[in-house]
Amino acid sequence: MPSRSHPGRRSSRHARLTRFRLTRLQNQWRYLLRALDFWGQMCNTIWGCWARPRSTFLENCRSIFGDFQCTGVLTNDLRESSFVPQARSDCGATARRKDEPLDILGSIKGESQSTSGLRDFLPKVAQSTAPVLITGETGTGKERVAEAVHVLSRRKDEPFVSVNCAALPEGLIETELFGHERGAFTGAVARYDGRAAQADGGTLYLDEIGEMSFYGQAKLLRFLENGRIDRIGCDDNVTVDTRVVAATNQDLEALISKRQFRPDLYYRLNVARIEIEPLRNRLDDIPTLVNSFIDEFNRRDGRDVGPPDGSLHELLEDYDWPGNVRELRNMVEAVFIDPPDGRISVADLPPAFRRLIAGHRTTTMNERDRLLAALNRTKWNKAEAARLLNISRMSVYRKIAKYRIAQSPLIPR
C-alpha cells in the first residue's frame, strides 16, 4: 500500500521550491519595473512576490514610481502587497514643480533696470497663449527666457520641445517638425509624430528662426494659423494644442527687406515680443552674474574661490562683451582651471582674455578721444559732432553715456 505524504512535508517542500524560484527572479524586479516605466505603462497596482526582506523591493519601486502606499498580508513563505503610486512628498517632483517658477525667475540674474523689467514681464507673457518672439544677441540667454515662459505658464507639466532651426536641412524640415507615416518615403521604416505633435499641450521652442528656409517658413505659417499638422503620407489632419516660442539673434525686419524672411510669418510670431538687452547695455548685472558663476563652480568643483576684487570689476565693466553672458560665464569657468586661493584678480584671468581686454581698451580710448575732440571742436553741438564723426546723433548720445563723458564747465552750453 503506497505511503501517503505528510501534508506538512509537502507544504514545506512547496515553500522551499517557491523561495528558490523567487530568489532567482528577485534581481529581475528592477529591470522589469524600469521597462514598465520606459513604455509608460503605469499600473494602478503592482502585485509583487519576493523572498528577501521587502525593503529592497520597496526601494526599487520608490526609485522609479516615487512614494506609494503598501497594503497587504504577509506570510512566512509568500508575501503579497499592492503598490499604488502616489504623488511625491515635498522633496520630490511635485515639490520641484511648485518651486520651479520661483527658481526659474531667480535664475535670471541681474540688478539692472532692464533685467528687473524682464522678470516682471515674463509672468504676464506666460499667462497668455499667444506666440512669443524672443530677440537678442547670441549668448544673452534666449533659451532660458523661453523655458521661463513655459514653466510660469499653465503648460508647465507638459513637454517643452526645443528645435534648432539652423541645424535642420531644408529637405528634413517638414518631417522633423510635423512627422511622417511609415512608408511615406524611402527610409521611413516607422511612423514619426514630429516635434510639433510631441509638444502637444506644451511649448515648441524654435531657436534661430531667422535661419529657417522659405519652404519651412510656409509650413510653419500654416501650422500657426490653424494648429493642424499635415503628416507626410497621411490623408488626415491632426490638430494639436502647442504654443510656439521663437527666438532669433538676427534683425527680422532687415531680413524681410532683403526678402529672406516671410513678412506674414513675422506678423504671426511678433505678438508677445521679448527683447533681451546685450550685456554691454546692462553693466550693473555683471557683479551679480560673476558672483553667481563663482558660487556655481565652487559647488561643482568643491572650491572656495572668493569674489573678484575692485580692479577686476572695473576691468570687466570696461569690456563690451560681444559674447554676452555666455562669454562672461566661460571666462569665469576658465579661471577655475587654475583657481586662486583667495579672491580673483586681474592676474588670474586667462592670458588670451587679458590680451583681448587690453586690445579693446586701446580701441575704446581712441574712440573716446575722437568723440571728446569732436565735441570740444563743435562746442558740444551733438549734431555737428555726429556729422564730423560720420555717425548718427543718437549714437553720439549713447557714446557719451557709455564713456561717461561730462561737459567741462569752461565750455559754454
Task: Please characterize this protein's 3D structure.
- The chain is 48% helix and 10% strand.
- The chain has 413 residues and is α/β, with parallel strands linked by helices.
- The chain has a five-stranded parallel β-sheet. A three-stranded antiparallel β-sheet has the order 1-3-2, with no helix packed on it.
- A hairpin with an 8-residue loop joins strand 7 (228-229) and strand 8 (238-239).
- Helix 15 packs across helix 16 (382-389).
- The longest helix has 27 residues, at 351-377.
- The radius of gyration is 31 Å and the shape is globular.
- The chain starts with 6 loop residues before the first helix and ends in an 11-residue tail after the last helix.
- The model is unreliable at 38-99 (pLDDT under 50).
Q: Would you identify the regions where 5 or more consecutive residues have pLDDT less than 50? A: 38-99
Q: What is the approximate shape? A: globular
**Distance N to C terminus:** 130 Å
Give the biggest beta sheet.
5 strands, parallel
Overall radius of gyration: 31 Å
Can you count the beta strands?
10
The chain-level mean pLDDT equals: 77
Tell me the helix content.
40-55%
Strand order of the largest sheet: 5-6-9-4-10
Query: Which structural category fits the helices and strands?
Result: alpha/beta
The number of helical runs is 17
